[in-house]
Write a structure and sequence with these properties.
The structure is a single chain. Helices cover 51% and strands 0% of the residues. The protein is mainly alpha-helical. Helix 4 (117-141) crosses helix 6. The radius of gyration is 30 Å and the shape is globular. The two termini are 55 Å apart.
């Protein structure tokens, strides 16, 4: 029995019980219905507009390659720009590789290409932000962002890296930078290299657990 049928049965049983109670103990001044077995039909629910969906979710347990789940969005020029910006946000150091080196640009391209509402909002933010970045670079330095030297790239990023302090003319760029930075960090720190950089020790089998270190408990004021 499906959920809709079971709800109908419960409503019908409740209505029949109320009718039997009314026949046995009529309320003074109120006549029982002429046909005590008749149950008035419920008021039809308002019609619901059918909205086209985007299909079923993909099998996330299978191994997929970029573009297998849905068509990708970024052009080669946009991927080049995204690579430069991602590596400015998380550059390589002595502990780990850069963001782009572990596939963050593939992650961002998959993310903004997904059909879900949140991803589609991010798609607009990222595409408009990448276009803004090249436009700003051309206005300042007569060249696209990916071809600027490190000092020029840093100068632009300094103006948009904090949305609370960004000048009014840089607010749109700052909103883009904040979202792109979040996507870059989310992609990077979900990789093995990113987890190692954090010192994350989860999902590792232990033969025993000795509890939190005494120094940590003491620092937190716990026994």
């Amino acid at each position: 029995m499906d959920r809709r049928t079971s709800i109908k049965w419960v409503l019908a049983a409740g209505a029949a019980w109320r009718l039997q109670a009314a026949r046995a103990n009529p309320t003074p001044g109120i006549s029982p219905p002429a046909d005590a077995t008749a149950v008035s039909a419920p008021t039809p629910a308002p019609s619901v507009t059918q909205v086209p969906g985007y299909g079923t979710d993909p099998d996330l347990l299978a191994t997929h390659h970029p573009g297998d789940l849905w068509p990708l969005t970024l052009t080669q020029a946009q991927r080049r720009l995204a690579t430069v910006l991602a590596d400015l946000i998380i550059p390589a150091d002595e502990h780990s590789p850069s963001a782009a080196a572990v596939g963050v640009v593939d992650f961002i391209d998959e993310w903004v290409s997904a059909p879900y509402p949140e991803h589609q909002r991010d798609r607009q933010i990222v595409l408009e932000g990448l276009a803004w970045l090249d436009q700003e670079s051309t206005q300042r330095f007569t060249s696209e962002f990916a071809t600027l030297d490190a000092a020029q790239q840093q100068a632009i990023c300094d103006d948009i890296c904090d949305i609370l302090r960004a000048a009014p003319e840089y607010r749109a760029g700052a909103r883009f930078f904040a979202r792109f930075r979040d996507l870059t960090a989310g992609g990077f720190y979900s990789t093995p290299a990113g987890r190692a950089d954090l010192g994350y020790l989860g999902n590792v089998p232990l033969t025993h657990f000795e509890g939190p270190p005494p120094a940590l408990l003491s620092k937190l004021g716990l026994p």
